[in-house]
Design goal:
By secondary structure, the chain is an all-alpha fold. The protein is built from 4 helices and no strands. The protein has one domain. The longest helix is centred in the last third of the chain and has 18 residues.
């Protein structure tokens, strides 16, 4: 089953940059700042990392809310 049929929008691919940014930002924090000892501390200390999934969720909600009802 395709997500277009389920969610009613084909624009969910617009959320991919948030996922990629969060992934690469986490890797940057991990390797540049030496956050390997406690991953949760690295996630909470960096202001960009909580914003990435939040942005992804908000955009996903907005895209699905604006999709035409079937």
């Amino acid at each position: 089953m395709r997500s277009v049929a389920v969610q009613g929008t084909e624009k969910l691919a617009l959320t991919v940059p948030f996922v990629l940014y969060g992934l690469y930002r986490y890797l940057w924090v991990l390797y540049r700042r030496g956050g390997a000892a406690d991953p949760s501390a690295g996630l909470l200390d960096d202001p960009h990392l909580p914003g990435s999934p939040l942005g992804c969720l908000c955009l996903t909600w907005w895209l699905i809310a604006r999709a035409p009802m079937h």
